[in-house]
From TrEMBL, chain A:
Domain Histidine kinase/HSP90-like ATPase: start-end pairs: 39-118
Protein name per Swiss-Prot or TrEMBL: Histidine kinase/HSP90-like ATPase domain-containing protein
Domain of life: Bacteria
A Pfam family: HATPase_c_2
Species per Swiss-Prot/TrEMBL record: Actinomycetospora chlora
Gene3D superfamilies in alphabetical order: Histidine kinase-like ATPase, C-terminal domain
InterPro entries to which the protein is assigned, alphabetical: HATPase_C_sf (IPR036890), HATPase_dom (IPR003594)
Region entry Disordered, spans: 1-30
TrEMBL record, chain B:
Protein name from the UniProt record: SigB/SigF/SigG family RNA polymerase sigma factor
SUPFAM superfamilies: Sigma2 domain of RNA polymerase sigma factors, Sigma3 and sigma4 domains of RNA polymerase sigma factors
Pfam family, one: Sigma70_r2
Alphabetical UniProt keywords: DNA-binding, Sigma factor, Transcription, Transcription regulation
Source taxonomy: Bacteria, Bacillati, Actinomycetota, Actinomycetes, Pseudonocardiales
Domain RNA polymerase sigma-70 region: 56-125, 140-201, 222-271
Region Disordered, residue ranges: 1-29
Organism the protein comes from: Actinomycetospora chlora
């Protein structure tokens, strides 16, 4: 796992990967160069995944990788949205740097909800990305961190 | 007044022979031919023209439906296609002139088919997309296999731009636009020609070892419910470790098409898995 970097100003710096642990606003306020906040509503997920795809295409990811990332963000958001507290916000942060893109999607949850990793959905996430991780250190928020490399390692 | 003329004729006489069935030869339209000649011979402002036109359109309606059915399974609602085909039929009735020699069917079929094709070209996009982007999307579609082969992976937006001698910005825009087109069915024609094979026809069966993997997974009931073709693509991607480009090559469709199919199938699976049957 990567070292958390709470003070992120530089667009090219890397994303914090264990945001719940830094104690400065928790997972909810994870700083990233790009963040999309929408109501936790399945109808808004296509807009979020379009942002992910656009960022990856602009960063010159090949079109397989762009499409994989779009599907992965779709899957991650679709897994999180049903767990969101009523009226909660889906927040997705994106950081493009060093030939990879990091995505942190999270929703506010009640009673320490978590995500099972023995599901088909999780298999989809791990197949489509180079790294997928549940972020459940923050009791109020539950998230998924995805990482996609520009070139398959 | 047109009252007495308008009420009865639109119904029985014109529709009786043609509407009752769908699989009949051209003979069933024979009784309409004199009406066509009469319709074409009337001046544009003659009130009888309107009545004849209605009866002709209703009489030939099975033809329009038949043509609309040829374009079924391409992701457009059947009612919409029939409506578009009917518009084509109305054009055909309006423009047909018997003195030019050809009979009505050989004039109407291409007219109706053309109308439906135009619909697919111009209107079957869920959002409005400028023409130049549609053209560029087609150019990208044909450049993809070539570049993928050369690079041994899917190209990037930058590589496509260079290859097509367009700006990267244009390519990015067109790729975004491509996602607005909801072409989605595995029953889609491989190319834009109704006589070509369907994707389903060229898909092989799943490898035996993939079946093995499937049995170890909890998703098998949901996977089994998918049409075999869609299941194959999901298996190849998520259990066979193939990239979209490799699947596209194996299956003989574009990478963009594989991408759309996967997205749609995942949504289906998700819906199915989030509501599992009690064991």
């Amino acid at each position: 796992m990567q070292t958390p970097e709470p003070q992120q100003r530089d667009r090219s710096s890397t994303a914090t990967t264990d945001p719940g642990a830094d104690g400065s606003g928790g997972l909810a306020e994870t700083p990233t160069p790009v963040e999309v906040r929408v109501h936790a509503d399945p109808a808004l997920i296509p807009s979020v995944r379009a942002v992910a795809a656009d960022l990856a295409a602009r960063a010159d990811f090949d079109l397989d990788a762009v499409s994989d990332l779009r599907m992965a963000v779709d899957e991650a958001c679709s897994a999180l949205v049903p767990l969101a507290r009523n009226g909660g916000q889906l927040r997705c942060g994106f950081a493009v740097a060093d030939g990879r893109i990091d995505v942190i999607c999270r929703v506010p949850v009640a009673d320490q909800a978590t995500l099972r990793q023995d599901t088909f959905g999780w298999r989809v996430l791990t197949t489509l990305t180079d790294d997928a991780e549940v972020l459940d250190a923050d009791p109020e928020w539950l998230g998924i961190h995805l990482r996609k490399q520009r070139l398959a390692p | 007044m047109s009252e007495p003329a308008a009420a009865p004729p639109s119904g029985d006489a014109a529709t009786k022979p043609a509407v009752t069935g769908s699989s009949r030869g051209e003979d069933s339209y024979d009784h309409l031919v004199p009406m066509l000649t009469e319709h074409a011979g009337l001046p544009a402002d003659d009130p009888r023209r309107e009545v004849l036109r209605d009866r002709l359109v209703q009489g030939y309606l099975p033809l329009a439906r038949h043509i609309a059915r040829r374009f079924a399974q391409r992701g457009e609602p059947q009612e919409d296609l029939e409506q578009v085909a009917t518009v084509g039929l109305i054009h055909a009735v309006d423009r047909f002139s018997p003195e030019r020699g050809s009979d009505f069917l050989s004039y109407a079929v291409p007219t109706i088919t053309g109308e439906v094709r135009r619909y697919f070209r111009d209107k079957a996009w869920s959002t409005r997309v400028p023409r130049r982007l549609k053209d560029l999307r087609l150019a990208i579609g044909s450049a993809m296999p070539h570049l993928s082969q050369e690079l041994n992976r899917a190209p990037t937006a930058g590589e496509l731009a260079e290859h097509l001698q367009r700006t990267r910005e244009e390519v990015l825009e067109a790729l975004e636009a491509a996602n607005a087109y909801r072409s989605s069915s595995l029953d889609d024609m491989l190319v834009d020609d109704p006589s070509s094979g369907r994707l389903a026809d060229v898909l092989g069966s799943a490898d035996a070892e993939l079946e093995q993997v499937e049995h170890r997974e909890t998703v098998q009931p949901a996977l089994r419910k998918l049409p075999e073709r869609e299941r194959t693509i999901v298996m190849l991607r998520f259990f066979g470790g193939m990239t979209q480009t490799q699947i596209a090559e194996r299956v003989g469709v574009s990478q963009m098409h594989v991408s759309r199919l996967l997205t749609r199938t995942l949504a289906t699976l998700r819906a199915d898995l989030s509501d599992p049957p009690t064991p």
